[in-house]
């Protein structure tokens, strides 16, 4: 039986709920215990066509809606989400398994990002330049790009849907969003908040179902003028290629494999205290999770001892238990990936300091894991683990550490810890990453851009850059 605490699942198209009647469905599972949460209906071809036509019609209206009105609707939706805060928290913990404290943190970040976008709607500016004609006027304006197709993953489903929706709507775009098939509930709750806030029908549509079919159908349509995707790099490459056929602009926030350089002048107790919660936040399922720790010789052994001790103390369990510090992995695929990557590392000569195996037989619980002396050719040093595994390696020479940190084709987040200002500046300059944290892991600022370089994607969410992604530039010259 479906969980009574869960939400009804449906397609949200042109302001109407379309349930599972006459549609294929698939189960949504609680990752802590494997229980059925609900049955998710899959969008049909007719549903997707209706969403496209609805989005195109609504865009013509929404783009002409004054910015202050757009802002008011977004901020009203935020107020409704605040009123329904604990319902969101419950759904996040049911769908992802994350502890209640992490679910509340995610909702706080979601609301902050949406407030930023709602306020920023009022500050979309153009400019004028001097014409070369005697009585000319030269105007550069910023206009909404058009209907958007957006795709979000399962790991932080409220934040990664909410900030896309709010930014696009603030810019004057309509959006069709496809949340993960494993975490559709929070996105539908956001859509309901916007509907209750007075968002016109069709400005926001939510479609559920098979990701490959939905992405091909939407991105191939001439209706779609912009694509926003957050997810793994291999999928991002496929979607970028599909969008290129229509010359459709894309924002790609893809995978990472974040290095952490710990220098011998760093405060090791402080670094460990910051690193362990950030590594195992969301059971390691974060694209900016610190993963490859390169620790300088003089402090390596102390760091390993303290980090391993703190890791062993993490309490893994039910996200609804206030004592739980780490919940389950999201699905059976992540369990299999952890087994494969850890076995490969050990086969290459790595040392297992702690963890390394599944907990129990129900759900997808996995031990927080620390690996030492992992060679660079092991799979886990090259493939994003996206799970609760920390890799600690030793380094002597700073240039060597930077080279190893930059070795991979990923460049989303990188971190370094040092008390030396010269070193800090060098590391900031030399690390090849869209985001660099010096003596901090904190990137959760809606006023600052979030995005990567290399195969971690292009374009940014949040900040003025996040709004700009949904705008085009028009030059008008009047003689």
DSSP helix fraction: 25-40%
What is the CATH top level name of the largest domain? Alpha Beta
Classification by helices and strands? alpha/beta
CATH topology of the largest domain: Aldehyde Dehydrogenase, Chain A, domain 1
| Integer-rounded radius of gyration | 23 Å
Domain count: the total is 2
- Characterize the biggest β-sheet: 7 strands, mixed
- Largest sheet strand order: 14-15-16-13-12-18-19
How many DSSP H or I helices? 14
How many β strands by DSSP?
22
Tell me the distance between the termini. Answer: 69 Å
% residues in beta strands: 15-25%
> Shape, please?
globular
Spans where pLDDT lies below 50 across 5 or more residues: none
CATH second-level architecture of the largest domain: 3-Layer(aba) Sandwich
* Mean pLDDT rating: 97
Description of the structure:
By secondary structure, this protein is an alpha/beta fold. It has two domains: 11-254 and 456-478, Aldehyde Dehydrogenase, Chain A, domain 1 (3-Layer(aba) Sandwich), CATH 3.40.605; 258-445, Aldehyde Dehydrogenase, Chain A, domain 2 (3-Layer(aba) Sandwich), CATH 3.40.309. It has helices at 45-62, 67-83, 85-96, 100-120, 157-171, 185-196, 211-220, 233-245, 268-280, 297-312, 332-347, 398-405, 421-430, 463-468, and strands at 11-13, 16-18, 25-29, 36-41, 127-129, 137-144, 148-151, 175-178, 204-206, 226-230, 250-253, 258-262, 290-296, 351-354, 369-372, 389-395, 410-411, 413-417, 435-438, 453-454, 457-458, 471-478. The chain has a seven-stranded mixed sheet, with helices on both faces. A six-stranded mixed sheet has the order 9-8-7-10-11-21, with helices on both faces. Strands 5-6-22 form a three-stranded antiparallel sheet, with no helix packed on it. The protein is globular.
